[in-house]
Amino acid sequence: MSKTMILLKKIRLLTFLSLATLLFAWGPLNLAKAQEIDEFAPATHIERIRIGPHPHDTRLLLDIEGPAQYRVSANFKEKIIELVFDDTSAGPKVIPRKYRDKNLSAIDVKSNEGQVTLTLHLKNPNTRFFHYSKKTPSQIVLDLKGTSEPFIKTQIGETEKKKSSQLKQGETESQKPKTTRIQGLTSEQIQQLVQSDTEEKLKKRRVEKELEQAKQIDLGFEVAKYILGLIFVIMFFTRVIRPIITLMTTSVEVTPKVQGAPTSAELEAIEDEKKRLGDMGAEAAEIRKSVGEFVEKDPKYTAGIVRKWMREKGPGNA
User: For domain 44-152, which CATH number applies: 3.20.20.380, 3.30.160.270, 2.60.40.3500, 2.40.50.100?
Assistant: First the structure.
């Protein structure tokens, strides 16, 4: 039994070492494959583009999965606004489309090597464009509002007459710089735009931090899963292999059947049988000897006896 226990302990140790080696070799390999897949897979996916509710403007809603990272390139003279998404894929519902809208005429979609470009074709060159991202649900909101008023209004500085009078009086006040104002936007609206831009940057940072934390949590779950699986396999293997080892190492002793010594009666019967067989053999030898002597002494008589016996038998009686 001690040899069986020693063998069982050796098998346990070898099993643990082999499974541990397999775990440490297989775990990083799977993680590396997952990282490679994550690296090659697009980080953002655009599911669809739809018109959203708005009382005055044209609102476009972009349903996305992943971080909302994009670049905006506007050419209002050509009535075009481009949104460029890097490391992004477009879903089957994201297709070029024409609209019957007062501000938007069409949307073109171009997808090439992980980059998606959405081109908005405007109806008016003087169009106000606002955009921001939402976390719940994950969306990008685009607001368009076109107007026929001039796009830029420049405020001209002081007249030459006023300048000459200031020089004559020796005033050293600096001239006010020319300012460019966008008609239709108040200071509060500009502050809201700046605030929304700041909030968008903060949201992006929060999303990046949450993604990093989620990756760390997933890595911890993977390690815990591998450890629990290893413990389960060791326990299961030990319970299964123990009865097999015990059965294989248990020696079966075969005890030979001991026959007892013959009794005196059995010995006497054996001796009597031997004597009887010896007497029968002697009688048979004497009969054979006497028959031989008789045949040799009187062959004619013997031949007559044989012919008589054959006639009595005959062919039909044979």
Answer: 2.60.40.3500
